[in-house]
Predict the structure.
Amino acid sequence: MAAYRTVLVGTDGSESSFAAVERAARLAAACGAELVIVCAYTPMSGPELDLAKDQLGAEAYQVVGSAPAEDTLRIAGDRARAQHAADVRTVAVRDEPVAALVRVARECSADLLVVGNRGLRSIAGRILGSVPADVARKAGVDVLIVHTT
């Protein structure tokens, strides 16, 4: 089996997702692969944003324009390079997380997609679906679900 050439990992700015980035970075470094870090975002504004901030509390960073996504990608890139990933590319995508990860994986010919396990075992994840479970079903490439929680 050949080593992976392009490893893609998703991050939402949470510590759990940064743990997945670090694991993906170590794997990419070991394989000499390119690491593509993706952050999906869906901007909100006005009353919709205020309501989301009230309801989401600490999770509100996920709904505020592309600036938080760019900040998240900068931090994720730094953390990846600290794990000796040499070829790191970051991509902010205006879309839902699963659709963004699957699309970018296809566009960059990723042969491995890495996500954290956050939401995989939650009640909401079982009822509504979770990013790791949905990515595993839809990716069309190898998927590594990293234990991050």
Q: What stands out?
A: The helical segments are 15-31, 46-56, 67-82, 97-107, 123-128, 131-138.
